[in-house]
Amino acid sequence: MLARSADNLFWVARYIERADFSARMIDAALRLAALPKAYGGDGTEWISPLAAAGNLELFKQIHDVPDQDNVFAFLAFDRDNPSSIRNCIENARRAARAVRTALTVEMWESINAAWLELRRIESSRDVTKPMPREEVDRFLDFVKTISRDFDGAAYRTMLRNDSYWFNRLGLYMERADNTARVLDVKYHVLLPEAEQVGGTLDFFQWTAILRAVSALTAYHWVYRESIKPWLIMDLLVLRREMPRSLVSCYENLARYLDFIGQDYGQQGVSQRLARSTYTRLLNSRRDEIFQRGLHEFVTEFLADNSRLGGVIAEQYLLS
Amino acid sequence: MTHFDEMKGSEGVVRSCYRLVEDWLAHTPPTLLEARRAQAELMFRRIGITFAVYGEQEATERLIPFDIIPRILSQSEWVKLEAGLKQRVKTLNMFIADIYGAQEAIRAGVIPEDIVLRNACYRPEMAGHRVPHDVWVQIAGIDIVRVDDQDFYVLEDNARTPSGVSYMLENREVMMRLMPELFARHRVAPVENYTDELLTCLKSVAPASARGEPNVVLLTPGQYNSAYYEHSFLADRLGVELVEGNDLFVREDVVYMRTTRGPQRVDVIYRRIDDEFLDPLVFRPDSALGVAGLMGAYLAGNVTLANAVGTGIADDKAIYTYMPEIIRFFTGEEPILKNVPTWRCREEDAAKYVLDHLGELVVKEVNGSGGYGMLVGPHSTKEQIAAFAEKVKADPANYIAQPTLSLSTCPAFAGDSIGARHVDLRPFVLTGANGVRAVPGGLTRVAMKEGSLVVNSSQGGGTKDTWIIEDTPGAGQRQQQSQSFQSQGGS
Question: What is the pTM of this model?
Fold first, then answer.
């Protein structure tokens, strides 16, 4: 396939996954913000979604103090924020339109319908006033349905060939990146077993993290235990059955890269790098990670992940 | 102005091929038509069938109005039209090959030399070159109008990069979904095989140096082009890669595309960008749409361009005026399709006549297209006419003029009622190494404004599905013959 098509297929999945993640982070912050201060609603909850999206600096250039309204507007609708939800949807649609021939009708219609709906919402939105909470919730739900719809369409209708594989690579690259960023923002409340400081006050922080990645129920199923910060780390990094965990994302990345390598009859740097990160995650143990420091671990992972992105681009997308 | 209505004829007697449509219209309440139209629009918008109108900022992605009443031609009308189209396109191929080859038509005085060689669309780069299988115009769109139930007139030849075929195909899809009951009453010749025919045609003209199955691609200027939807639609239906200039490169006179597996050779390029943008080394150096070195590969015979470079000359409206003589010269036959009588302003007497009668005529630039740069005398103000007169005086050779034809009309659902609207027809004609073919039907364009004669989509015209049906519809269907649409309960 055309290198440009592969690139667009990769990015359309990334943009949609990113929009979904932003919506989930806003959702989590809204919950925290509704809590009394004593329960963790300390007024800093609007910094987390900005930090996790990696655009706290950009935000500070435009606004003073982050609050619900300006953070929501910035993350959802700001055209100057390259990863705002509206920009993600528009970029996804632009990428999709450039490779319409490589998408199935269902995929195209889902992204096109999402873009038309976004335009409708934008044109009816009163920019001079904060969006009413009810509409905010409806908007976030709408964004989350886009990813389900698009992803479901891809899963159900695409031929299992390189088009599908490059699309999946984009999805899992972005997802791994997002999970790691949540961990990075919240590493200070995710402590090992021995250090039970903070206690129940952090409970709401922890559940907010789980909710943000829709893993609260999964947590209970996997551990059958009350919420423990070290198990949250375990779930989001090391559990293969958790579809957003780093190890699960890398299992998929390694697998789809292998499919491409086998199909093209040639393995390269990206296959080796993905497999080595996957093996490292498989062999990691919880206490080791805490011993070395969760922050250091995550920082290193983010660097590896971004290196893999670069290598995939070099090997396939830019040729 | 009286005109021929394709449903009601000239005397108000419903023509037999429209019998069932007329019955259907008589028994379908406008509210149902309105609902169907809304459904159709929704379908088009969801699929993303849009067309950009240049010069309209906010409306960069607009829908072409779609009229849900089909335009009908009988089988016997089509047989005649098809023969004329084939004759015309065969001639266009011979004529263009001759222009860039032996120039016999010029030497025989069939057409003046300067009108060819000084033409803006003449490509001296092609002089003395042959193209694979001597096919220059693989895809032609011939614009047809009628003024009575006898004759078809050619209004324009489009041999450069005719567009609109995706609307022909999508209109049919939408109609079949929306109007199953109307389809059940007719036997409509299918058009969906167009893309298969096109692929066969494109593969048949691959260069001799192509190895194995020819690799065909469709070259688009990109998603901001007005016809991008059509490009992606066709690439999809053809099952070929939709490439932009940056996806291609040329090495040692061979064209390759950049793929995830490395470079892959390209044999046939169905290009939807104009000559001037194809290769910055040969044509416009500022073109970012083309491929450096493409002309070198082309002239070396390593890649086929469809349509060939230089075919735009046949779209020229001054050259059009010579087509009847050109047909006689190359085929020895009488033209089956008529030309609209045309004054060539390059001729002094004609220019004088045109300037004296601007208010009655349609005046066009010889290489204009899309309804831009033309004057429709009877529908223009004194000021517009005066301004246009100055343009004609300044450069008479750049203009031709035609009488304001009373184009035929068809029933259309415009606004909230059914009314007669002027139409034209663009059938698509394919020429491969294996001969000339026309898919039955074409794109009917309709002027949605009452009385308007301008059907171009860039000027707000709409489209209709075009049906070629048996001469007496319903005759072979015993069961249904007695049923009227009334019994359908309008569902």
Answer: 0.84
